[in-house]
Design goal:
Number of helices of chain A: 0
Distance between the termini of chain A: 36 Å
Structural class of chain B: mainly beta
Largest sheet of chain B: 6 strands, mixed
Radius of gyration of chain A: 13 Å
Helix content of chain B: under 10%
Strand content of chain A: over 45%
Structural class of chain A: mainly beta
Number of strands of chain A: 11
Strand content of chain B: over 45%
Order of helices and strands of chain B: EEEEEEEEEEEE
Helix content of chain A: under 10%
Oligomer: heterodimer
Largest sheet of chain A: 7 strands, mixed
Shape of chain A: globular
Radius of gyration of chain B: 14 Å
Number of helices of chain B: 0
Distance between the termini of chain B: 41 Å
Order of helices and strands of chain A: EEEEEEEEEEE
Amino acid sequence: NAGVTQTPKFQVLKTGQSMTLQCAQDMNHEYMSWYRQDPGMGLRLIHYSVGAGITDQGEVPNGYNVSRSTTEDFPLRLLSAAPSQTSVYFCASSYGGWDTQYFGPGTRLTVL
Amino acid sequence: AQKVTQAQTEISVVEKEDVTLDCVYETRDTTYYLFWYKQPPSGELVFLIRRNSFDEQNEISGRYSWNFQKSTSSFNFTITASQVVDSAVYFCALRQSGTYKYIFGTGTRLKVLA
């Protein structure tokens, strides 16, 4: 199993550009989520999904969109990048809501 | 409201010392889960332990041990005989039963000096 994979590993954007961060897992996990990690603030939940076709907002959803068309993939879209979205983004998955989350390696995004 | 507090921003110890990382949580639920994750300098997040609110037994895994006390809403993590490889940021997290929303603390950076 590859576990949770994320691409790209690094990305630099200009303000106003859009892009999609990819996340995939091969563990047949129903639950997937996106977090951002900023210095001194820990990890904050952006969006999550409890299964294909079902998504919900987390703590900091503004400026991000998600969709879940398959169990394996959970992409995160930045519609119009802003410098405040400079962060490290982590995708995570778990088998069930009660289960342990396993994290991908992260994507370091810089918005100029 | 749910909250996780890791008051220790950074701790430095000399190798072989014991060190305890504090985690205090707030929740009104009776059923919840607590977690510890390690983030080494390479950046990935590594799961260490999960505890549910009904299991107050302390846990030991090698040099790692966890002390869960509902009376003080604390879930502290102790590393015995620390090693340089233990240098990392450690996060405590809380999840309430019935939701998938995890609340993370701000992390404690542990530096173990040779």
